[in-house]
């Protein structure tokens, strides 16, 4: 039955719509869902009657909470080979969304995390609401930000992206706009009218799509990151995670101390690998290069104890008390970090020539 399909597709006017349809799982992505979205994009790319694609999530809790990390946990526990192929197809989809030749409108209402960012923030018309919570929380489960997250976050103003990556904090509407993760704010109660307007037969090209979204957009409620920019830029400019934490603890701003405490609860190995990945991504020229490096990092995480432990603590047992290995930043070695940039056993993603620098 249609309501049981994890991805729903529909046509209205000259608009094609993709709805992620696992509301009880916060629309978490599975491998079949990724393949279905890619299949739909292929069909619509060749269909001259389709002027734009709109992506949203079923239910009222969010667009997508990320990849199905319960499935990744099962795969890692059993030594299976399902996670790497999932990431391979997911990251290829992320790259494709960024280069899609037709307007790709992402309605980023509610929770948008991890893989949810990948299917939305690479689009060219990205809409947030007062309910939006946009985050890359990977360091909390032993992963490095992926789905192009390192590329997106390093292009945020100053060190805001580094702050979001290391803490895993969620950005509301105004902060997502500030960081370049979204383009427009539309109140949630106006989304049905916006969808209907986009489906109007008079919407025929990208200019029409953008003009339609602007008609429903308004100024968002105030965010927090702009006010915190001074201490964030000063503290996160440090060369190592340890130095960043020391600067945060010594700054005197209560929010800086809170950020330090959050960071100290994340996987020490993932934190160091993430900072290295961010610094590398800042030097890259394309999203595809960043995705290639992220694929290496994700595959490497499958062989670390922190991935299983992080997912256990967050979503399996939900005790929120992970026992990281190693448990302190000082015990994470350069070799530990280097593992996250090593070619995976099954070969690289291959979207671009992977940099050796």
Automatic annotation (TrEMBL):
It catalyses: 3-hydroxy-2-methylpropanoyl-CoA + H2O = 3-hydroxy-2-methylpropanoate + CoA + H(+). SUPFAM superfamilies: ClpP/crotonase (SSF52096). The keyword ATP-binding does not apply. Residues 16-338 form the Enoyl-CoA hydratase/isomerase domain. InterPro entries: ClpP/crotonase-like_dom_sf (IPR029045), ECH_dom (IPR045004), HIBYL-CoA-H (IPR032259). The keyword Hydrolase applies. Keywords: Hydrolase. Its EC number is 3.1.2.4. It is an enzyme of class 3 (hydrolase). PANTHER family: 3-HYDROXYISOBUTYRYL-COA HYDROLASE, MITOCHONDRIAL, 3-HYDROXYISOBUTYRYL-COA HYDROLASE-RELATED. This is 3-hydroxyisobutyryl-CoA hydrolase. It comes from Streptomyces hebeiensis.
């Amino acid at each position: 039955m249609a309501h049981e399909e994890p991805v729903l597709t529909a046509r209205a006017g000259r608009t094609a719509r993709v709805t992620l349809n696992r509301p009880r799982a916060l629309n978490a992505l599975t491998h079949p869902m990724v393949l279905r979205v890619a299949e739909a994009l292929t069909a619509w790319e060749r269909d001259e009657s389709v002027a734009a694609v709109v992506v949203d999530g079923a239910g009222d809790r969010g667009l997508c909470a990320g990849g199905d990390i319960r499935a990744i946990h099962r795969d890692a526990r059993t030594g299976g080979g399902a996670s790497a192929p999932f990431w391979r197809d997911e990251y290829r989809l992320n790259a494709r969304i960024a280069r899609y030749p037709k307007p790709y409108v992402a309605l980023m209402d509610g929770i948008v995390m991890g893989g949810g960012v990948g299917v939305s923030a690479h689009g060219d018309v990205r809409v947030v609401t007062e309910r939006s919570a946009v985050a890359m929380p990977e360091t909390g489960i032993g992963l490095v930000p992926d789905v192009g997250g390192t590329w997106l976050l390093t292009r945020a103003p100053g060190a805001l992206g580094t702050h979001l990556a290391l803490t895993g904090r969620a950005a509301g509407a105004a902060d997502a706009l500030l960081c370049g993760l979204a383009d427009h704010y539309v109140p949630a109660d106006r989304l049905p009218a916006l969808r209907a307007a986009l489906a109007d037969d008079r919407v025929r090209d990208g200019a029409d799509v953008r003009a339609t979204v602007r008609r429903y957009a308004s100024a968002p409620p105030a965010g927090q990151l702009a006010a915190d920019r001074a201490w964030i830029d000063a503290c996160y400019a440090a060369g190592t995670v340890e130095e960043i934490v020391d600067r945060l603890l010594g700054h005197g701003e209560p929010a800086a101390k809170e950020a330090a405490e959050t960071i100290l609860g994340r996987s020490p190995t993932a934190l160091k690998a993430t900072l290295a990945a961010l610094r590398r991504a800042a030097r890259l020229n394309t999203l595809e290069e960043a995705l290639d490096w992220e694929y290496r990092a994700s595959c490497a995480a499958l062989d670390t104890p922190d991935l299983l432990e992080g997912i256990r603590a967050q979503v399996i047992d939900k005790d929120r008390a992970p026992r990281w290995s190693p448990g302190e930043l000082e015990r994470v070695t350069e070799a530990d970090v280097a593992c996250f940039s090593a070619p995976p056993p099954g070969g690289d993603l291959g979207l671009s020539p992977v940099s050796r620098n």
